[in-house]
Amino acid sequence: MRILFSFFVVVATLSLPSWGYTDDTLVVYSGRAERLIQPVLDAFQTESGIGVQMLTADSTALINRLEMEGTRTPADVLITNDSGTLERARELQLLQPAAVAGLETTIPARFRAPDNSWIGLSGRIWVVVYNTTMVSPDDISSILDLAEPKWKEKIAIPSAGSIYLQTGVSVIRAIKGDEVTAAFLRGLKDNAGSFVYGKNRQIVTAVARGEVAAGPVNHYYINRHLAKHPDAPIAPLPTDQGKQGMGVVLNAAGIGVTAHTKHLKQAQALIRFLISPQGQRMFADVNKEYPLNPDVTAAPELLPLQSIQVAGVPLSRLAELRDPTMTVIEDVGLR
C-alpha cells in the first residue's frame, strides 16, 4: 500500500502546475480544500493589501514538492489539515520558526511545534455520527465499541488512505497498544463491509439516509450537513469520556513558514491575521471548526470543547506514530 501510495504521490507532485509567480505575491501551498481556506485568504488580502496565490494539492504531495524544489521553491507558507503532516515537514527542515509577535499568548503551546515551526489554526475532534432514529447515545461509550459484532453491516468508516483515520488510529495505538488497535481495525473492517469511503461527508450522508447507523468522522462534517439539511436525523457523539475513557482524538489544521520563503514579513503578517480574532472567527463561523485562540468562542451549535475530554497524545507525536500505524492498518488489510 505504501509503495503504491508513494508512486501516486510522486505522480501527483510532478503533475502540479509550475505557475509564474510574481515577486510581490505571497505563495501558499495548501493541503486544505480550497473552499475551506480561500475565504480566509481573501479576507487577508482585503485587510492587508498583500496579494496571495494558492496552490492546492494533497499535503504529502506538497511536502514532496517542497523537498524537490529546495531553495528554488516559490512557496512562502504551507497549510495542511493535519498537525502530523506539518511536524513531518518540520523534521525534513522544510519549515522555519515563525517569529510572530504575540504568538505564544495567542495560540496555546499544545497547538504549536516546540520551536514554533508550525502553528495550529483550527481544531477538530473525531466523533461518532449516529442516526438518531436507529441509535441511542447510550449504545456507544467508546469508539472501540464500533468493532463489536453487534455493529456488523451497520457502520461506515473512512478508507485506509484517510489522514483522519490514520491520526485516530495513531492516538489509539499510543494509548491502547498494537494488539487492541489491530483488533479494533479488524472489527471495523468486518462491520463496515462495503461501506468504506474516502470522504467524511460520504459517511455522514450514509448515516443521514439510514443506510448505516453510525460512523467515525470529524465533527464539522456533521454541522455542515445539518446546515443544508436541518431535519436530517443525525447527531455527534463524543466518545471515551469519563475517568476510564481515553478521550476523543483532537487534531488541528495549521500553518508553517517555509525554510526558503522570499516573503518572510508577508508570511508573518498572514499568520498574525489567521490567529487574530478576525481570522479565528472565520474558521469558527464558516468552517464550523474550533478556534484555537482562547479569546474566540466556537460556533454556538458546536459541542463546547472545554466540556469534552480529549486524548492526551501530543500533536507533535503524530508524525512519529504515522508509519507504525500504517503498518498495523496494512497488516489488517483495511482498504
Count of the separate structural domains: 2
Distance between the termini: 9 Å
List how many beta strands DSSP finds. Answer: 11
N-to-C SSE string, H for helix and E for strand:
HEHEHEHEHEEHHEHEHEEHHEH
Assembly of the depicted chains: single chain
Mean pLDDT across residues: 93
Helix content: 40-55%
Distinct helical segment count? 12
- What is the CATH C level class of the largest domain, in words? Alpha Beta
User: What does the largest sheet look like?
Assistant: 9 strands, mixed
- Tell me, what's the shape? globular
| Cα radius of gyration in angstroms | 20 Å
Please state roughly what percent of the residues sit in beta strands, choosing from under 5%, 5-15%, 15-25%, 25-35%, 35-45% or over 45%: 15-25%
Give the CATH superfamily of the largest domain.
Periplasmic binding protein-like II
CATH topology of the largest domain: D-Maltodextrin-Binding Protein, domain 2
Structural class: alpha/beta
**Could you say what the CATH architecture of the largest domain is?**
3-Layer(aba) Sandwich
In short:
With 335 residues, the protein is an alpha/beta fold. The protein has 2 domains: 2-123 and 251-304, D-Maltodextrin-Binding Protein, domain 2 (3-Layer(aba) Sandwich), CATH 3.40.190.10; 124-249 and 323-332, D-Maltodextrin-Binding Protein, domain 2, CATH 3.40.190.10.
Set down the secondary structure blueprint:
Elements: H1 2-15, E1 25-30, H2 34-48, E2 51-56, H3 59-69, E3 77-80, H4 83-91, E4 95-96, H5 103-106, E5 119-131, E6 157-158, H6 163-176, H7 178-192, E7 196-197, H8 200-208, E8 214-218, H9 219-228, E9 234-237, E10 249-258, H10 264-275, H11 277-285, E11 290-291, H12 318-332
Parallel strand pairs: 1-2, 1-3, 6-7
Antiparallel strand pairs: 3-10, 4-10, 5-8, 5-9, 5-10, 5-11
Helix pairs in contact: 1-3, 2-10, 4-12, 6-7, 6-12, 7-12
